[in-house]
Structure formats: structure tokens, C-alpha cells
TrEMBL record:
The organism of origin for this protein: Thelohanellus kitauei (Myxosporean)
Domain named Reverse transcriptase: residues: 50-165
A Pfam family the protein falls into: RVT_1
Protein name (Swiss-Prot/TrEMBL): Retrovirus-related Pol polyprotein from transposon 17.6
InterPro entries reported in the protein's UniProt record: DNA/RNA_pol_sf, Retrovirus_Pol_polyprotein, Rev_trsase/Diguanyl_cyclase, RT_dom
Listed transmembrane segments: none
Listed SUPFAM superfamilies: DNA/RNA polymerases
Amino acid sequence: MDVLETVETSEWASPIVVVPKANGQIRICGDFRVGLNSQLHVERYPIPSMHELLIKLKEMNIFSRLDYSDAYFQLPTPFGLYRYKRLSFGVSSAPAIFQRYIESILMQIPNCPTFLEDIIVIGASMTVHLKTLELVLAKLQENELSCKIQKCEFYKTEIAYLGQVL
């Protein structure tokens, strides 16, 4: 995914932390609490509330849930030893940056509300659902974003989303 590159010098350095994933693998994250985050102007961007999302899902019958592969690492950044070439977990502005980016690429497509790395494609009928899913997947591919197919679910009449069963 081309996440890191070597640099000769840097004014900043951050320790790493190892975070276990639910599947038993590990995620390497920068521990940005001490240095970087305290110096950043934190990006502000609204993350949708559960209430807003549930309103969009009302009266829908078919659902697909997409899960990004290493979501934040898919966004190239100018940030940065090794220097990150992509958005990193642990940066205080990462959720706002990610939400803004995803909404900007999917904003013209109805029936695909997003909450950070969780996107749900909905439709009142299979025809509408398939058309929306095709548009979403094309936009993700066009923007070089990939999903972890093992964690995606397709064409469900009932689905768990953000802790709710729809």
C-alpha cells in the first residue's frame, strides 16, 4: 500500500504502539498523543449521529455493508527516520479528514450513508440497491480505495450496522 518512506532527518519522531485486531492480527499505530497531536490544529468535520443515519435507513429493505482495508492508510497525505505517506491512525484529525474525504467522493450517490470506515449501501428494492452498490464500488475504485471483502456483507434483508440490527 506504500504507507511509509525513508527520510534522512525529521524534526518530529513518535513512538509506535501495537494494537491487537479482533482477528488476532496486529495494527501498528503511531503514538501521537505526546508530540504531534498537541501541536496540530485539529480538523473539524461533522461525523453523522446515529439518529441521522437511522433516519436515512428507514424504510429500506436491502442492505450491503462495506469495510475498507486499512481505511486511513488509503488516504495519501503530505504529512510525515520513516515518514507517513498516508493518513495514520492516532492522528487527532484523522477521523474528520477521513469522513470529509469519503463524503466528498460519495456525495452525489444517494442511499449510501457513511460513518468513518463504515459505509452501508441501502435500497428499498433490489434494483435500486444494485444500482447504488455499483455506483459506490465504481467510485471507490476510481479513487483507489479498497474494501476487505471478507468483512463486507451483500444483499441482506437484515444487517448489523453501528451496533444496531436493521
